[in-house]
Amino acid sequence: MKQLCRLPLKALVWQYPLPANFSELVSDPVFGDDDLYPAMKKIAPEKMLNLRAAQTTEFAPSFYAIAKTGAGSTLGEQDEIWFYPIPDSTYTVRFWYKLDPLKPEATNEVLPGGAKAAEAIIEHCLAVAEQQENDKVGLHTELAARLTQELIVHDARSNDSMLIGNLRFGDSYARPLVDHSTYETQYNNWYAGE
User: Fold this and answer.
1) At the N or C end, where does the chain have fewer CB atoms within 10 A?
2) pTM for the full predicted model
3) Chain-centroid distance, C-alpha 182
4) What is residue 100's predicted lDDT score, i.e. its pLDDT?
5) Reduced to 3 states, what is the DSSP secondary structure of residue 76?
């Protein structure tokens, strides 16, 4: 799944925490439609720190870096986005990022994919337990198969690339694109539901 982030930059602030469900960037940050600034380029966090050590300038950012901050373990890490040069004014940047859904905290929250996908997962777990304990295919196996088929049919009818499990790309499945100038085959987006 992708999500749009609109990040307001403040003057003289160059480090910003990314959302808790951030996984990775899908697009480079861009300024608003009215702003005529060049596109930002991604650099390594180490290079960003070297640039800052060499010269601290203030202007509209032209570089960004994604850095992990916090303790050494994955439990204490948080992703941040850094900008250089340091913003000299307020700006709004936006970018798309791939999200990792947060772990449900309440019993009424469901996993991504909706209640039917969560129910299918539970039925598959019960079907495995049923087959291990009773050594037979029973009600839970039949329910799991039916729910999975319903989810596949639902995904096949949808062309929305924002849905989890949507394996279609437009009207075709992993259609190869041929570059006629070099005759090299490239495959475009094997899994469109990222």
Assistant:
1) C
2) 0.54
3) 32
4) 76
5) coil
User: What is the pLDDT at residue 175?
Assistant: 41
Mean pLDDT by 10 residues, the chain (194 residues): 89 92 89 80 94 86 89 64 92 89 63 71 88 82 87 68 45 41 38 42
Sign of CA dihedral 174, 177, 182, 183: positive
| CA 161/CA 170 separation, integer angstroms | 9
Domain that holds residue 47: 2-99
Say how many domains are in the chain. 2
Q: 76, 70, 74, 97: which is closest to 15 by C-alpha?
A: 70
- Parallel/antiparallel/unpaired status of strands 91-99 and 30-31: antiparallel
| 3-class state of residue 61 by DSSP | coil
Q: Are 57 and 123 within one domain?
A: no
On whether both 95 and 119 belong to a single domain, the answer is: no
Instruction: Clarify whether residues 55 and 134 are in a common domain.
Output: no
Instruction: Identify whether 163 is part of a domain.
Output: yes
User: 94 — phi, psi (to 5°)?
Assistant: -135, 150
The residue with tokens 């996993």 is 111
Residues 94, 167: one domain? no
- Spatial distance between the Cα atoms of 138 and 120, rounded to a whole number of angstroms: 15
> 29, 41 in Cβ contact below 8 A?
no
Structure tokens at 92: 């709004």
